[in-house]
Amino acid sequence: MTSGAGHERLEEPLARAVGERTAATLSKLGLTTVGDLLRHYPRRYGKPGEFTDIRSLRTGEHVTVMAEVRSATVRTMRSRGGAMLEAIVSDGRDTLQLTFFAKRAGVLRMHEDKLRAGRTGLFTGTVGEYRGKRQLTHPDYLIVGVDAADADEAIYEALRPIPIYPAAASAPTWRIARAVRTVLDPLQEEDVPDPIPLEIREREGFPTLREALRLKHEPEHMDDVARADKRLKYEEALVLQTALARRRAEHAALSAVARPPRAGGLVDALDARLPFYLTAGQRTVGAEIARDLAANVPMLRLLQGDVGAGKTVVALRAMLQVVDAGGQAALLAPTEVLAAQHVRALRALLGPLGEGGMLGGADNATRVVLVTGSQGSKERRAALAEAAGGAAGIVVGTHALLSETVQFADLGLVVVDEQHRFGVEQRDALRSRGARPPHMLVMTATPIPRTVAMTVFGDLETSVLAERPAGRAQTVTHLVPAGNPVWVDRTWARVREEVDKGGRAYVVCARIDPSEEPDAVDDFEADDRLELEPAKDRPPLAAATEVAATLAERPELAGVRVGLMHGRLSADEKDAAMARFASGETPVLVSTTVIEVGVDVPEATAMVILDADRFGISQLHQLRGRVGRSTAPGVCLLVTYTEEGTLAYERLAALVATTDGFELAEKDLELRREGDVLGSGQSGRSSLRLLRVVRDAALIAKARDDAREVIAGDPTLDDHPALASAIREWLGEDQEQFLERA
């Protein structure tokens, strides 16, 4: 079936379909075409007799309330003139006042006649308060069984589930419902091209897309909604997974230089000099990566592991395999602090194996060089020359590595650390170097639930390091109520105890100085934040510069030197601050989240996170991972003003309950409104409306298998034009590129 005619109907402007006036109100919800409106699904359904909980309404909230009318009275106002209608509606326990004003009482008689006691209605407006009572002023409303075109429609509306849509003051839910019915009822099957192939629909018993939309918008029973939801969710999953399958098929057709392992090379030499045994997980994942590198199809593998799982050693062994095969590896890090730390860690692990051409270097040694934006010109020229000439087998850098001035003799592997911190174009820049694409390994210490990896990364090969290296201690986490002086005093006393034992302590703040707006916080990940729920009368957010000054004066920390670290410092200043902290010269370091990823000071045993509710679960888990990185146990104290019963408190309680990053990632996904799993930074609007990657994992897995079959039989989707069109419309080119390169 061709999709052109149908798409013409779905792309019809709403102004033509429902009229200019209605279209203008719907445009405020971002709905401009017939297709937009049909994909604007109800967020819930009301039934006559199932009323809204009036007690839960909050002042200032825009609401749609289902309730029963108790009374409606018109009276003249003597003080200000004119007339007022006051109606009382109830959910059976609590009441809500409806207020209408007019110049003359006669104008209000129409409302009084419709708002008769015993009738059920939907009432939309903004919750206000007058003399201690909650009210809606001039609400828009629909009376069930009364506001209908004829008796048949009245009976129909009175018995069926009532769709309640995401709405606006100018576009109440029933106005949206009427507009939907106006555009949906005349549509024929051929007007609504179906992305799901006929053979899959028949096998699964799915309704057509047109029928599913009818069941979703105009259900006669809630069973209709369930049937529509299952089909519409599967459709979303199939579109996403087909895009992934097509990209993976295209990727598999590319050719890379095979980099097989070499017996007696640098990998074997490294293994022989490591002061510890590789974990079973590191050996298994290492073998998977080694096989990928030995193939002539470019590797595209995600390596995820919890904080402290040993990803660096796995990545180093992969880079050395490429060097053994005559190539080079580039390690891309998100910050200069982390890039410099990677260089130190790699050189320490390699020892003489990383001192190629130097006195004392091993015969088959290579070199590790650093490229950053803040390097001096002499140091940078030397590093660039070693990269271009091939003397440096491993080149570590920040975004500066992406510059056209950085050339490689034979780039065989790109390792991207903390891949979510780089945009699509940045991640792709290194892959485009050379005649054939290099292998790619992307790493993340932010655990991604299996269901998310399956949805976002599709057929991208995924390796997981689940176990911690032997000898690593656990970190315990406690909540500290910021409003309790005794607990706060004990927090700083605990820090002093750790320092006296030879440990180090981080103190993390959400902003640099008091004048800074919270949303402008250094290294504060907007995507990592959840909806904030500030407690009443909470003080301003703690600022690093201020906290560093006040801690030096606290009696618990008398005689203890306090350091300061944040994103406005130069690279040299950051290095110096970290060096003083690591050596114990300043055993307490006040910092912003610039220390979140990868910073490794084994002596660090304590962390205090102020205003902890300002951060999301994954970010808190990353921060906590900076302590307990040796045999000494760690302690993390989450200081917060948030109150029990809030979403923010639930997030923090989850951190206290477990140190399992994958379990926390699942919890994080449950607490978030998932939105677009592809990431709002990568695309304009959410491609997932109904599908939820945790709840619908089985459906996603089924769609993935079906998508592979579709692409195997029709790689270009020439025989599935509606599916190809849905991929273009829902994902767009940018999001498809993200799927390929993420």
Q: Briefly, what is this?
A:
This protein has 26 helices and 21 strands.
Describe the structure.
Residues 518-536, 673-686 and 738-742 have low confidence and may be disordered. The protein is of the alpha/beta class. The protein has four domains: 1-47 and 165-189 and 205-220, no CATH class; 49-160, OB fold (Dihydrolipoamide Acetyltransferase, E2P), CATH 2.40.50; 266-465, Rossmann fold (3-Layer(aba) Sandwich); 475-658, Rossmann fold (3-Layer(aba) Sandwich). The strands form four sheets. The chain has a seven-stranded parallel sheet with strand order 11-12-10-13-14-9-15, with helices on both faces. It has a six-stranded parallel sheet with strand order 16-21-20-17-19-18, with helices on both faces. Strands 2-3-4-6-5 form a five-stranded mixed β-barrel. Strand 3 and strand 4 form a beta hairpin. The chain starts with a helix and ends with a helix.
Q: What is the top-level CATH class of the largest domain? A: Alpha Beta
How many individual domains? Answer: 4
Q: Find the CATH superfamily of the largest domain.
A: P-loop containing nucleotide triphosphate hydrolases
CATH level-3 fold name of the largest domain: Rossmann fold
Biggest beta sheet summary: 7 strands, parallel
The CATH architecture name of the largest domain reads 3-Layer(aba) Sandwich
| Percentage of residues in strands | 15-25%
- pLDDT average, as an integer? 83
Q: What's the overall geometry?
A: globular
* Rg of Cα set: 31 Å
Q: Uncertain segments of ≥5 residues (pLDDT<50)?
A: 518-536, 673-686, 738-742
* Strand line-up across the major sheet: 11-12-10-13-14-9-15
**Tally of strands:** 21
Q: Would you tell me the structural class of the helices and strands? A: alpha/beta
**Separation, N- and C-terminal Cα atoms:** 34 Å
The number of helical elements comes to 26
Estimate the helix proportion, in percent.
Answer: 25-40%
